[in-house]
Write a structure and sequence with these properties.
By secondary structure, the protein is of the alpha+beta class. The chain folds into 2 domains: 1-38; 39-151, Jelly Rolls (Sandwich), CATH 2.60.120.340. Helix content is 29%, strand content 45%. The protein has 3 helices and 7 strands; from the N terminus they run H-E-E-H-E-E-E-E-E-H. Strands 1, 2, 3, 4, 5, 6 and 7 form a 7-stranded antiparallel sheet that branches.
């Protein structure tokens, strides 16, 4: 013999539980979708105008992590010169040298090893150059809130 009130109560609890599970799965799916869309690769390139074998290229609009975003630099390349040194700096040519190039090279950087925080930028400097200087790079660009997930 079954009690009608007990069956209705049990059915209502199962339905409520299933609704809660469905809502949790929907939130998880939305979170995964957001994570998959948060990182964009930003390629950049340019050249350094030289005078007497030296020069600087500082283009904040092109080489800067904008407000609310972080760049994880993944590759930097300097090419075209046969003598001298090219250096990538943080924020100014008098700032922190983040990657020197005593010879033309392609350097790959691991995730989280070279971060530009919002407002930071890359400035390129060259001294004692014979030839020309071209540079390329690529950065992972993501919203600041994602940093702990990016670092793993």
């Amino acid at each position: 013999m079954t009690t009608p009130g007990l069956e209705i109560d049990f059915s209502a609890r199962i339905a409520a539980s299933l609704d809660g599970i469905a809502a949790a799965l929907t939130r998880e799916q939305q979170w995964r979708q957001r994570q998959m869309q948060v990182i964009r690769q930003i390629p950049f390139a340019g050249s350094i105008t030289l005078a007497g074998g030296a020069g600087t290229d500082d283009q904040p609009d092109k080489l800067q992590a904008k407000t609310g975003y972080i760049w994880g630099i993944r590759r930097l390349t300097a090419n075209g010169f046969t003598a001298g040194t090219v250096t990538a700096y943080r924020n100014s040519s008098a700032g922190e040298p983040i990657m020197p190039f005593p010879v033309p090279a392609v350097n790959t950087i691991g995730r989280g090893e070279l971060l530009l925080m919002p407002g930071d930028r890359i400035v390129w400097g060259a001294t004692g150059i014979t030839g020309t200087v071209s540079y390329w790079g690529v950065a992972d660009c993501f919203e600041s809130w994602y940093l702990p997930y990016y670092l793993g």
